[in-house]
Write a structure and sequence with these properties.
alpha/beta, 13 helices, 6 strands
Length: 305
């Protein structure tokens, strides 16, 4: 029976790094029955359709969208099996939909993975009869929220500071921001022993251990996944963060086109004196609030669980 290992994030930096490692190891090939869903021969367009179907589901999970996403995934997995894949690894944060900054930009509220349950149910229906395992990468909320903020800055979605962004997230309600709440329906649907977590903090503390765990849980040959040589999602300097917020205002007032502003942000070099502009940080009061709210969440437990 075909095994499917799903890695839906939600932490983008860790997920992107894992995807780079998978591409280097399996990209475009099926090796001893192992395949990377994002780069299977001849199925690039099919997988792209699956990804966008789940993004659409998470924007508005109508019956038609749920059925479409589930059907496209079912068809994709069947085609992968026809190509000799016995162990299919699917690492893609798009299964959970857009990150919170997208919804802050579009709707003024975070909408923190609100349709997570519908996503899990659609995937379970599509993969019925398969062996399914799910791996989430977690991160302590005191740094995770800064990462979400930076996602919004990179795409010129925000004109607020980090403490203001935390307030928008908090308006979702603390329960909605917890990993144990996010993961619970997946454990109920797929079985507790088939859903596990690996923390981003382990990646920072011991990259080799993190990659070894990823490899083991993906059921790939020992040592087949290694850290990418180049950094993914490198840190944005303070002057670009400041520029992004100004560009947001310029776009909102009609002074600049969004696509051109995005190019300007990517290509910008610091002017004299801008090299020392600090990156934004959460205030100590906000950090204390976050730690108090989430200290008993999965994200603050052991690195490997």
């Amino acid at each position: 029976m075909m095994r499917v290992v799903l890695h839906p994030g939600p932490h983008k930096t860790a997920t992107t790094m894992v995807q780079s490692a998978l591409k280097a190891s399996l990209g475009g090939r099926v090796i001893e029955g192992n395949g990377d869903a994002r780069h299977l021969p001849g199925l690039d367009e099919e997988f792209r359709a699956v990804r966008w179907a789940f993004v659409g589901l998470n924007n508005n999970p109508t019956g038609k969208r749920v059925s479409s996403a589930s059907g496209l995934l079912r068809e994709f997995v069947a085609k992968a099996e026809e190509r000799g894949v016995a162990n299919l690894v699917m690492s893609d944060e798009n299964f959970l939909g857009h990150p919170p900054s997208f919804f802050v930009f579009r709707h003024g509220e975070a909408r923190y993975y609100r349709h997570n349950i519908a996503t899990a149910e659609a995937i379970a229906e599509a993969l019925s009869g398969r062996d399914v395992e799910v791996l989430f990468t977690t991160r302590k909320q005191e740094t995770l929220f800064s990462s979400h903020y930076m996602d919004g800055i990179r795409w010129i979605r925000l004109d607020m500071d980090l403490d203001e962004f935390w307030e928008v997230l908090r308006n979702e309600g603390i329960p909605a921001l917890r990993f144990d709440r996010l993961i619970a329906p997946w454990r109920e649907i797929f079985g507790a022993t088939n859903v596990s977590c690996l923390s981003y903090e382990l990646l920072l503390k011991s990259p080799d251990t993190f990659m070894a765990e990823i490899t083991r849980r993906f059921h790939l040959p020992e040592g087949s996944l290694t850290l990418p040589e180049e950094r993914v999602n490198s840190s944005m300097p303070g002057f670009k963060i400041q520029l992004s917020r100004q560009l947001f205002r310029d776009i909102s007032s009609g002074k600049k086109d969004r696509k051109l502003a995005r190019r300007e942000l990517l290509r910008a070099d610091p002017l004299a004196g801008q090299e020392d502009i600090p990156r934004p940080r959460l205030s100590s009061a906000s950090i204390d609030q976050i730690r108090a709210a989430f200290q008993d969440d999965i994200s603050y437990q052991e690195s490997v669980h």
